[in-house]
Design brief:
Elements lengths: L2 H14 L8 H9 L12 E6 L5 E5 H7 L10 E3 L6 E4 L7
Antiparallel strand pairs: 1-2, 1-4, 3-4
Length: 98
């Protein structure tokens, strides 16, 4: 095969072959955000708190508890204010000896 024939067949294959279209900016953005880059579809871990006055149970996201622990000493429990009676709420325990 001569170089001229090779180039000519290559040009013909490019001419008649399928050339993939470039994706639009909008399509690329849609594909990028389908992957959930901000973690919005991840489950939120909830921690149960119980009020000492009215015994109301409230579930609080775990990431908020970390924000309340900034001014606490190590091993000290986080206490929240009850939204119902303004009493003090503590984290519930599975095992009473904890």
């Amino acid at each position: 095969m001569v170089l001229y024939e090779f180039v000519r067949t290559k040009q013909l294959s490019l001419l008649f072959g399928k050339v993939p279209k470039k994706k639009s900016y909008r399509q690329r953005m849609i594909e990028a955000f389908e992957k959930d880059p901000f973690g919005l579809n991840e489950p939120i871990e909830l921690v149960s708190f119980v009020c000492t006055k009215c015994h109301e149970i409230d579930e609080v996201p775990a990431y908020l508890i970390g924000k309340f622990m900034v001014d606490k000493k190590q091993g000290e429990e986080v206490s929240l204010e009850c939204p119902k009676c303004n009493g003090e709420m503590f984290q519930t325990r599975n095992n009473p000896s904890e």
